[in-house]
Design a protein that fits this description.
Blueprint (H helix, E strand, L loop, with lengths): L1 H46 L2 H9 L5 H37 L3 H60 L7 H23 L3 H52 L9 H20 L3 H61 L8 H27 L5 H59 L7 H21 L6 H39 L7 H15 L4 H15 L3 H11 L1 H4 L1
Helix pairs in contact: 1-3, 1-4, 2-4, 3-4, 4-5, 4-6, 5-6, 6-7, 6-8, 7-8, 8-9, 8-10, 9-10, 10-11, 10-12, 11-12, 12-13, 12-14, 12-15, 13-14
Function: Negative regulator of FtsZ ring formation; modulates the frequency and position of FtsZ ring formation. Inhibits FtsZ ring formation at polar sites. Interacts either with FtsZ or with one of its binding partners to promote depolymerization.
Subcellular location: Cell membrane
Protein name: Septation ring formation regulator EzrA
Length: 574
């Protein structure tokens, strides 16, 4: 038992030792892998071309703020490349020793510390390289920008040299501003070539701003100068010559102080020239727009008068003829109204309207008579006469349109009377036909309601006949009564046929019901009641309802069958 226990203990110790060794071997291998990674990262940092980048920047001969910035970041690099790299080497060496001595806990802590040092170094070196790169790119940007700005500047100088006359009085001030920009570029070039691109950039930005502003100014000045030097003076001269021509032809200009307005615009042009000399371009642009507007107004005044004269000359006789034509039409219409009023009642104020036309025509004639002498004496603007002519033509057009409307209405009265008489004759014929139709049915009598309506229609037809035979026929009343009579006759015709159909159907139902008289006492009672309603009270619809209901009770469907037969053979039965 004792020997077995000892053997078991020995085996257990060997197993534990093997496990511990295995774990130690695994940890040692892991640490070696981390060490390899650290070595690789360290080598990558050593291989960075930072020294070459520094040499390139040194060749730029930086000064001032740029030089200070370079020194600051170069010192950071020197510290990183000496102290920090030495510290990193020491930490890596310590990790290797601890790992070889199987002091894994301390080795792990040393690895973590070395990795953190590596992380910080990579981060700091990245910052250093970014700053070096910014310094180099700043100089390159300045070089590119200055070339672009200088190209524009050279273009402006060339434009002043070769086309200076198109800038007019603004030439001197523009030249002065060009020289100012040149001074700014000189300052920039000095700073940039001496190795201070950061400060040079600020100067360049100012120079660029002034260059682009001046470029925009030089684009605008020639156009505005052209207006002030050539366009406006030419237009004003043309207006002055045109005005003199109109005066020679004895035009009357409706605008007072026309010559003073021309002089006012000339002074505006002179003031704008002075502003252009000072290169106050925004003021010149706004004033030139207003000047152009005022010149357009002067042109409009003269052009309106010239066009108005053409209109007046063309329409002068036409207006006089139109007045005579409207007067003649109105006179004839008054005669026609007087004649028509003897036969017809005029209900639409025709006479007052025609007299109103006469007043309008006479007012136009009066104004035209007052305008003609002024035209002959050249005392009135043609535009004023044109306005009067247009208003007069519009009024006369309206008068003629209403004259034609009234004349046509008078002619229509006779047509309406003839049509109304024809309809009245047709109504009489229709009433007589309905009367004969009822008589042919040999009914025992007619319902009182039907007779009342029949005689009412008869009275209205007589009333229509009386209206048509009056000395002065009122066609409004006639047409209204014609419409009523037409409607009444339609209703009467419907009532007549309904009454005849109800009577005939009642007789058909009675004949069929007689077969049930002796077998059904209720049918006999209905037959007796139906005969009373039919023969003595003339209530044909009630009689039909009475016998139809009784018959339907003893023979369902009989009513519909008899009714269908009746309407299919109506012509033979009625």
């Amino acid at each position: 038992m004792g020997s077995n226990l000892i053997l078991g203990i020995v085996i257990a110790i060997i197993v534990i030792a093997a496990i511990i060794y295995g774990i130690g071997f695994f940890i040692r291998k892991k640490n070696q892998e981390k060490l390899k990674a650290l070595e690789d990262r360290k080598k990558a940092l050593f291989d960075l071309p930072i020294k070459d980048e520094i040499d390139d920047i040194k060749k730029m001969h930086l000064v001032g703020q740029s030089q200070n910035s370079f020194k600051e970041w170069n010192q950071k690099w020197e510290k990183l490349s000496t102290d920090n790299f030495a510290e990193l080497e020491s930490q890596i060496f310590e990790v290797e020793n601890l790992n070889e001595a199987f002091r894994f806990v301390k080795a792990k802590a040393a690895v973590d510390k070395a990795q953190k040092t590596m992380d910080n170094m990579e981060k700091e070196i990245g910052k250093v390289r970014d700053e070096f790169n910014e310094l180099r790119e700043s100089e390159e940007r300045n070089s590119l920008k200055v070339q672009q700005a200088l190209d524009i500047y050279e273009g402006m100088k060339k434009s002043l040299r070769e086309e200076g006359e198109k800038f007019g009085p603004a030439f001197a001030e523009i030249q002065k501003q060009v020289k100012s920009v040149e001074s700014e570029f000189t300052q920039f070039i000095t700073l940039n070539t001496s190795g201070d691109p950061v400060e040079a950039r600020e100067v360049l930005e100012t120079a660029e701003k002034h260059t682009f502003e001046l470029e925009e100014l030089m684009k605008k000045v020639p156009e505005e100068y052209e207006k002030l030097h050539s366009i406006f003076p030419g237009q004003l001269e043309e207006i002055a010559d045109g005005y003199q021509t109109l005066m020679d032809e004895e035009y009357v200009i409706p605008k007072e102080n026309f010559e003073e307005d021309i002089a006012h615009v000339k002074r505006r042009v002179e003031n704008s020239v002075e502003d252009l000399e000072k290169v106050e371009i925004s003021t010149v642009e706004a004033d030139n727009d207003e000047t152009a507007n005022q010149i357009d107004q002067l042109y409009d005044v003269m052009e309106r008068e010239i066009a108005a004269k053409r209109y007046v000359v063309k329409n002068r006789k036409a207006l006089a003829d139109y007045v005579d034509h409207a007067t003649s039409n109105n006179r004839q219409l008054l005669i026609e109204l007087d004649h028509t009023s003897q036969t017809y009642t005029l209900n639409h104020n025709e006479l007052a309207r025609v007299r109103g036309f006469q007043s309008e025509i006479e007012e136009i004639a009066r104004r035209n008579d007052s305008v003609d002498p002024k035209l002959e004496a050249h005392e009135i603007p043609y535009s004023e006469v044109q306005s009067f002519y247009k208003d007069a033509f519009e009024i006369l057009d309206g008068v003629e349109s209403e004259q034609v409307e009234i004349d046509q209405a008078l002619r229509d009265l006779r047509k309406e009377e003839t049509a109304a008489q024809d309809r009245a004759d047709a109504f009489e014929f229709k009433l007589r036909s309905l009367k004969r139709f009822v008589e042919q049915q040999r009914l025992p009598g007619l319902p009182g309601e039907y007779l009342d309506f029949f005689f009412g229609v008869t009275d209205r037809l007589e009333e229509l006949d009386d209206l048509l035979n009056k000395t002065r026929v009122d066609m409004d009343d006639v047409n209204e009564l014609v419409a009523i009579c037409a409607e009444d006759l339609d209703v009467l015709q419907e009532k007549t046929h309904d009454m005849v159909d109800e009577a005939a159907l009642t007789e058909q139902m009675m004949q069929h019901a007689n077969r049930y008289r002796h077998s059904h006492t209720e049918v006999k009672a209905s037959i007796d009641r139906t005969l009373d309603l039919f023969n003595y009270e003339y209530r044909y619809k009630d009689a039909l309802d009475e016998i139809g209901t009784a018959l339907e009770r003893v023979e369902p469907g009989a009513f519909k069958r008899i009714e269908d037969f009746y309407y299919e053979n109506r012509k033979e039965l009625v």
